[in-house]
Fold this sequence. Notes:
The chain is mostly helical. The protein is 66% helix and 5% strand. The longest helix has 28 residues, at 42-69.
Amino acid sequence: MFVLTLKELFRLVFVTLALGYIFSSIAKRPRSLEDLQKRFDFEDLNIAAIIAAPAVILHELGHKFVGMFFGLQTEFFASYFGLAIGVVLKLIGSPLIFFIPGYVYISNATAFQSMIIAAAGPFMNLVLWLGTGLLLKHKHFGHKTMLILYATKRINMILFFFNIIPLPPFDGSKILSGLLDYF
């Protein structure tokens, strides 16, 4: 049965809000004078959460649900330290923001199971990347929706390629390790 605990739901909401803040400048939109006078804009947080959170949350839930499919005990954790790094990099205006927002703990997986579970996260990013690419081919969306879809496509493409790097701690290292153990 695919169930999230109340703790996991809280962590997912926390990660979503943190990602919204960290990426709140991802999609610049026209602003009124009143908007410019605000220190913080909840519309920017909302748009950024719509763009970034599914990429990260569905990536991690891919790991979780495949682990559950194998009958393994799984739990999603927010990386509060990793999110704090992202917030600090955002606050200092770093041009590169690198952090780990969360992870899924999975107990007692075999090498083959670990390989499949590790591949599930990047696979979710691949599906989101290609899916938004197909949606973008339809030019009948509004400007705001097109921007959101384009940013969603880009972040999922980046996460896909980044996560298949065959070096620890990336998923690619677990995929390669599982392949080497399997063959």
